[in-house]
Specification:
two-stranded antiparallel ribbon, TNP-like_RNaseH_N, 4 helices, 155 residues, 3-stranded mixed β-sheet, 7 strands, Transposable element P transposase-like RNase H domain-containing protein
Length: 155
């Protein structure tokens, strides 16, 4: 039992910090109802390099199961931007790439897609934090003739 405890306490090192985030790899089928969490990790911070390594492991596992990975979707966090930069090999370019070669399927690309609901929430929060709309917290999104419109609804 003492050996077990030492292994998890780090043998005299300071206690590990409790996780503040969960990194989730979710699988969604584009033409099917497939929808499941593939892996999740309790974290305090994730670097772009760690995210790249873990993403490639997940993509490889899915491809080995016969599933075709077409795109990666995430918010605009710096570690996610670094992931896309590392996968596409565009380090230092002014304009980031929107795709990268799929290392597990020759001749196919992986596309990078922003999480649109998250972007809308970020826009709403920026308006809210600027006191532009007097703290209404009511974001309305509508589609007029296929042109998206986003506005803040007043109380």
């Amino acid at each position: 039992m003492e050996k077990f405890e030492r292994r998890f306490k780090g043998m005299g090192q300071e206690d590990q910090q409790l996780a503040s985030h969960v990194l989730l790899f979710m699988v969604h089928g584009l033409t099917s109802g497939m929808n499941f969490p593939m892996a999740y990790f309790a974290t305090t911070n994730v670097t772009g390099a760690q995210l790249t390594e873990t993403s490639l492991k997940c993509i490889k596992a899915l491809e080995l199961m016969g599933l075709k990975v077409l795109c990666l979707t995430s918010d605009g966090a710096s570690s996610n931007r670094k992931l896309y930069e590392m996968l596409s090999g565009d380090s230092g370019k002014e304009k980031p790439e929107h795709k990268a070669p799929n290392l597990f399927e020759r001749g196919k690309d992986l596309y990078f897609i922003c999480d649109v609901p998250h972007l809308l929430k970020t826009i709403r929060n920026n308006f809210e934090n600027s006191n532009w709309n007097h703290k209404t917290r009511k974001l309305v999104v509508s589609n007029l003739k296929h042109k998206p419109l986003c506005y803040i609804k007043s109380s």
